[in-house]
Amino acid sequence: MPRPDMRAERIPQILDAALLVFARSGFDQTRMEDIAEQAGLSKATIYLYFSSKDELILALLKRFFDQSFEALTALQTAEGPVAVRLLEWTRQRMAEMQAQAAFLSIGFEFHALAARQETSRQLVRQSYAQYRRGIAALIQQGVEQGELQAINVEELAVAIISIYEGLTVLWMLEPGTVDVVGVAEQAVRALLVCYGRDN
Amino acid sequence: MPRPDMRAERIPQILDAALLVFARSGFDQTRMEDIAEQAGLSKATIYLYFSSKDELILALLKRFFDQSFEALTALQTAEGPVAVRLLEWTRQRMAEMQAQAAFLSIGFEFHALAARQETSRQLVRQSYAQYRRGIAALIQQGVEQGELQAINVEELAVAIISIYEGLTVLWMLEPGTVDVVGVAEQAVRALLVCYGRDN
Amino acid sequence: MPRPDMRAERIPQILDAALLVFARSGFDQTRMEDIAEQAGLSKATIYLYFSSKDELILALLKRFFDQSFEALTALQTAEGPVAVRLLEWTRQRMAEMQAQAAFLSIGFEFHALAARQETSRQLVRQSYAQYRRGIAALIQQGVEQGELQAINVEELAVAIISIYEGLTVLWMLEPGTVDVVGVAEQAVRALLVCYGRDN
Amino acid sequence: MPRPDMRAERIPQILDAALLVFARSGFDQTRMEDIAEQAGLSKATIYLYFSSKDELILALLKRFFDQSFEALTALQTAEGPVAVRLLEWTRQRMAEMQAQAAFLSIGFEFHALAARQETSRQLVRQSYAQYRRGIAALIQQGVEQGELQAINVEELAVAIISIYEGLTVLWMLEPGTVDVVGVAEQAVRALLVCYGRDN
DNA sequence: TATGAATGAGGGTTCATTCAT
DNA sequence: AATGAATGAACCCTCATTCAT
User: Fold this and answer.
1) Within 13 Å and on the Cβ side, how many CA atoms surround C83?
2) Same domain, yes or no, for D136 and D177?
3) How far apart are the first and last CA of chain B?
4) One domain for residues B76 and B171
5) What pLDDT, on a 0 to 100 scale, did the predictor assign at position C199?
6) Alpha-carbon gap: C13 to the closest alpha carbon of chain D (Å)
7) Which residues constitute the domain of residue A188?
8) Does A99 contact strand E, using a CB cutoff of 7 Å?
9) Is CB count within 10 Å lower at the N or C end of chain B?
10) Is the distance between the Cβ of D43 and the closest atom of strand E smaller than 7 Å?
11) Residue closest to E15, CA→C1'?
12) Whether residue C164 is found in the same domain as residue C100
């Protein structure tokens, strides 16, 4: 087993390569050989760092979500009105999603995996739950500061994340037609103000 | 090539079987043999009706979305206030989604396919576009009848469908925690009333 | 799974081919491809009849020993003095061994397998035990008919079989030098007359 | 290339390790890695002392037989009646075989190798020939001293060694059932007295 | 119409061997 | 002298697809 410093170099190298080719061809249609080529290594070398294709996919899944939520904590400790912060966050997230368009298929494939395998589902679930709690905590700040009216905070967070997720699908299908930043902003604004209110 | 009446019987039989095993194992991990077993036929017989595995998947994709929107036309010609009809539709759709939970993975896999293949993307896009137009037309009715305020109808439709899509993901991950029917209803109500409005 | 009549044809065909190439290259150095070629089939076809290489080897092992002992029963029911019959049997066995020289390596490899795997050992042990019992029963006939003196019949059978086995090794090493038929005959004769006697 | 004194230390260390793991898993199923682990060295270090796996096996083969016959010369120069010495030798040899039970599989695998490769066969043959000559010389002593009757000395030696070899197989299969020391002793005694005699 | 039988074309994984340090 | 790291070459096994019956 390679030494730690070598692993620290090779593992991201391999995961980056895997991300690229998985995005292009899907988990199953991608051959270990493809990943190796993309990484500039030999097939056998991949197996020095990941014991199987499945383990590689799992490692990717973990990294995928770990990275996603570092920004979230920053969001909660930032200054200013909650609504402003959340809308800024919304814009950033949608922009980021567009920038990462090439990798969207991997996210959908993770959903498919999660929908059919308990192991994957648990991993993905934890990430989304953490995500949801982050958004909910932010909204709760707004409520406590009197900026937002008291409603079901958890549900509102779910609705907002749903907007993000759903828009990702629709934008992927029609990138030219759907103004994802605009719709996301408007929808989140509407939800913040009106969700759970009698109208 | 089998006679038409034979095809009318076998094709749904095979597609039903495929739906089941694809949902369980994914497109790539499912073998033609698995489909044949589930259908009570032999592998070779499948090839009398579908020229390849890919074609079978495409046929499934088509049927998958065709079925989804038959109810939509009924929605537009029904009676009563638009908001009531849309909320009822929302409830039905979420209930239907829960009832079809076992097949959700297929939907996600279609998204993954669409994200990486132009051919699949066009198919899925058309379905979603038709869907979006249906919802938009309904909202437009409400605007014309003075029931809803004039806003960007197309965008609102996109936001509403996003809620459906996103909630499907979140519910799949935590079926016990997320009250999809409730959240969907509240969110759609909020969007209908507040989307695009200054608040 | 192929029909019985097809299996009855293919299985011996495959086992015959396997015997040949295993004898030439050993179990591990033989590739499934080699067996397939020798059998005039494709690799995949082998897997229609044997689920793995190991299973194929086991099947061969079984057939190997099953065949060996059909003649043994005939030996016990034949007419004439026991000593004469046993010596005739000895000559035949050694001649047969020489005729099958090309396959000796398989026998040795079975011994190696048996020496290190419980599963294989049980199979081989049963065959040898059956063999030993056959020889012992024959000798017992001689004792009961007053032809041979009473001694430890079981042990004598073990000694005789050891001669067969050991001579096989020595002959394999020096086929030109060792007169297996002659030595086997003389040795068995000596054992029959003198084993366990005070001299 | 390591210095001689280093070689004198490492080579037995590696051969001992190889013996152990080869006995457990067979030549082909054993990986160089396994040998290295057992020897407490790294894989690459093995290659400092043996240029390939095959060479390592050959070296083991040589050592295996070299060791076996050091005692043989002692046997010929010892005092006392030949029969007594040979029977003592027989007992020792069978006891030694039982003590080395764990390594029997290697011997059988050498037989298999010898049966299919000329190179290995020559090596093994020389060892057995030397062995046979040793036993024959001993018997010849007995004949010349008038202790044993004149018969075909070479053939008798072959018969005796066959007993050793054959009993090894039978004992390996049924260590609890076969009294190898007893049978070997009785059988050798019978052969000494009666082999080649008219009875 | 249906299928038992067959197979070509891989794909994941392993391992003997090499080499820079 | 020793080894961590790397890899080319295989090999077992699988599976979409074909075809004779």
Assistant:
1) 15
2) yes
3) 63
4) yes
5) 59
6) 23
7) 69-194
8) no
9) N
10) yes
11) D31
12) yes
Q: Are A37 and A88 in the same domain?
A: no
Q: Do A and B touch (≥3 CB pairs < 8 Å)?
A: yes
Q: How many residues does chain D have?
A: 199
Q: How far apart are CA A171 and CA B60, in angstroms?
A: 23
- Asked if A54 CB < 7 A from strand E, the reply is yes
Nucleotides of E under 7 A from a protein CB: 1-20
Amino acid present at A154: E
Q: B48-57, B189-198, C65-74 — which is least confidently predicted?
A: C65-74
CATH number, residue A37: 1.10.10.60
Picking from D170, D173, D191, the residue whose alpha carbon sits closest to that of residue D181 is D170
Q: Is residue A64 part of a domain?
A: no
Q: Are residues B34 and B90 in the same domain?
A: no
Is B162's CB within 8 Å of A165's CB?
Answer: yes
- Tokens coding A96: 């980021």
| The pLDDT value given to residue D1 | 65
Report the C-alpha dihedral over residues B23, B25, B28, B33, rounded to 10 degrees.
-100
Three-state SS sequence of B12-64: HHHHHHHHHHHHHHCCCCCCHHHHHHHHCCCHHHHHHHCCCHHHHHHHHHHHH
- Residue type present at position D121: R
Chain A residue whose CA is closest to B155: A183
Residues 6+ apart with CB under 8 A from D180: D94, D97, D98, D167, D168, D170, D171
CB pairs under 8 A between A and B: 180
Return d(Cα C6, Cα B193) in angstroms, integer: 72
Q: Copy the structure tokens of residue A191.
A: 């939800």
Distance CA A171, CA A26 (A): 20
B contacts of A196 (beta carbons < 8 Å): 186, 190
Question: Is residue D124 in a domain?
Answer: yes
Tell me whether residue C199 is in a domain: no
Asked whether residue B66 carries a pLDDT value surpassing 90, the answer given is no
Which of C14, C36, C61 represents a domain boundary (last residue)?
A: C61
Residue with tokens 């908001």: B83
Residue D186: Cβ within 10 Å count: 24
A162–B112: do the CB atoms touch at under 8 Å?
no
Residues 130-169 of chain A in contact with strand E via CB under 7 angstroms: none
Rounded distance, CA C135 to CA A31, Å?
A: 59
Q: State the 10-residue block means of pLDDT for chain A, 199 residues long.
A: 85 98 97 98 98 96 81 83 95 95 96 94 92 94 91 96 98 95 97 86
Nearest CB neighbour to D166, from listed C104, C155, C164 = C164
* D197: Cα separation from own chain's centroid: 29
How far the first Cα of chain D sits from its last, in Å, is 63
What are the pLDDT digits (tens) for D158-174?
Answer: 999 999 999 999 999 99
pLDDT band at C173 (very low <50, low <70, confident <90, very high): very high
CB B22 within 8 A of CB B60: yes
Nearest CA in chain C to D199: C193
Nearest nt to the CA of D54 via C1' is E16
Tell me, yes or no, whether A120 lies in a domain. Answer: yes
Q: At what angle do helices B70-77 and B82-99 cross, to 10 degrees?
A: 160
Q: pLDDT, tens digit, for every residue of C95-117?
A: 999 999 999 999 999 999 999 99
Neighbours of chain D (3+ CB pairs under 8 A): C
Cα angle: D29, vertex D35, D37; to 5 degrees: 120
Which residue matches tokens 């137009």? B133
Probe site for chain C from D122, D158, D180 (most C CB atoms < 10 A): D158
| Domain count for chain A | 2
3-state class (DSSP) for residue D26: coil
